[in-house]
Amino acid sequence: MVSISTTTAVDLGPREADAHGSGARWFPRSCRPCGYKHFCEAFEKHRKNCKQCATSLPWCVTGQRLFGAAVRIRRQGL
Questions:
Q1: Using one digit for the tens of pLDDT, what is the confidence trace for 42-69?
Q2: Which residues pair with 19 in a beta bridge?
Q3: pLDDT for the residue 2
Q4: What is the DSSP code (8-state) at residue 8?
Q5: 63 or 12, greater pLDDT
Q6: Beta strands 29-30 and 10-11: pairing type?
Q7: What is the 3-state secondary structure (H, E, C) of 17-28?
Q8: 8 Å CB contact between 67 and 75
Q9: What is the DSSP string of 16-78?
Q10: How far is the C-alpha of 35 from the C-alpha of 22, rounded, in Å?
């Protein structure tokens, strides 16, 4: 298990959420190995279900963002 701290956490960017009828912003973090794993899994799942990403380039905006996030996390760990 990887320990997460302020020095090892990867910022996944701000997110908007509905908090009991009002908007809220939260700032998720992840350890590098888990973040990379989950972004790669999400990208592969997305590609299987997205007609544009499954058949051609350029990928749709969601596909581009998922792939880009995985690449950024991977590069930061090198």
A1: 999 999 999 999 988 899 999 999 998 8
A2: 22
A3: 61
A4: T
A5: 63
A6: antiparallel
A7: EEECCEEEEECC
A8: no
A9: EEEETTEEEEE--EE-HHHHHHHHHHHHHHHHHH-HHHHH-SSPPHHHHHHHHHHHHHHHHT-
A10: 28
